[in-house]
Amino acid sequence: MIDKILGPKYDAYLGFIRRQMIKDQIEARGVKDLRVLAAMDKVCRHCFVTEDMVSRAYEDYPLPIAREQTISQPYIVALMSELLGLKGAEKVLEIGTGSGYQTAVLAELAAEVRTVELFPDLALAARARLEKLGYRNISLRAGDGAQGWQEHAPYDAIMVTCAAPDIPPALLAQLKPGGRLVIPVGSEPQDLLLVKNTPSGAERETVCQVRFVPLLKPE
Ligand code: SAH
Question: How many domains does the chain have?
Fold first, then answer.
């Protein structure tokens, strides 16, 4: 409805509510990294949702995408991005591409992003969307993310956007010394873990409770 009333001004309106989202949902909850806030402003979340969800794209929730999966809540995308502490030169691995929204945010924050999605149709749709938006620093493959992406390892940072019973060992093995991994672990609600790969081993810290769809096993 509102898209019909506003016509070409609709994009400007969406930009306005995106900035409201950043202020009210993200900065208000304590995300401070200016690069993360700028990335959340740059990436149009409404470009990653289904047409019937565009008017709800900047609300404070995850939204349904295909295959009973979800695009994560904006605050959680910003929080997990901030936890990786990216400065711009890093090589990042993401597990659970879904819509590609978090992938785009990571591509704004790091030099190179590799992302793995279990469902080939979701992977294809995300690739088309990300190419259309002009991202050239993202590589995407369909497959089981629990195995990581060995050919391009090690990574400065790894983000998992589906919940695992525990940290998949392959992911820890593909993390550089000094690297960071963010992952929801356990049963609902899960613990969001920040894992730092230190010389004395993996240090785990629980950041908060979250609700993610599960990391699925390939059939
Ligand atoms: N980051 C996404 C969130 C997607 S929800 C976004 O911003 O849209 C989690 C995604 O993980 C789903 O797309 C699901 O299909 C995917 N997934 C589940 N199990 C997986 C696995 N074993 N390997 C790779 N991806 C998986």
Answer: 1
Look at residue 39 and tell me if it is in a domain: no
Give the structural domain span for 160.
Answer: 64-210
What is the model's pLDDT at position 1? Answer: 65
Q: For the segment 105-154, what is each residue's pLDDT rounded down to a tens digit? A: 999 999 999 999 999 999 999 999 999 999 999 999 999 999 999 999 99
Show the tokens assigned to 203.
């240090």
Look at ligand 1, atom 4, and give the residue with the nearest C-alpha.
98
131: domain CATH number?
Answer: 3.40.50.150
> Which residues, judged by CB distance below 6 Å to any ligand atom, belong to the binding site of ligand 1?
67, 69-72, 95-96, 98-99, 101-102, 116-119, 122, 144-146, 161-162, 213, 215-216
Which of 138, 213, 219 should be mutated for ligand 1, with most atoms under 8 A from CB?
Answer: 213
